[in-house]
Amino acid sequence: MTSTTPKQPVRLPITCVNKVKTNNIYEQISDVGVTVKGQTVILPLKDAIRAIEDKLYTFFVVVDGFEVDVEIDEREGHKYLRTKPDSTKKNNLLSLNSCTPPSLWG
After folding, report:
1. Is the whole-model pTM more than 0.85?
2. Does some domain include residue 72?
3. Mean pLDDT score of the chain, rounded to an integer?
4. How many separate domains does the chain show?
């Protein structure tokens, strides 16, 4: 009998975000930029959420030299990304620079 080891999700850094103007903090991010083989790839938020749910990818941001994991949260029926609590009070994702448009996912 052969045992198969489940494939581990690929871990990628989020290095930038694109935002939309809204008063709802949970709906401000429209895209995340992830670094893949040295290039930034812009991933629509819904695709990033699906990739986490499907266990294809996990994401993190670097804060003060430390990796902080990104997770899915939900508020008022709206799924969004957030970082796990860490030592900083700033919003780790919203404080990232805006992405320049090099390439789109897929």
Report:
1. no
2. yes
3. 85
4. 1
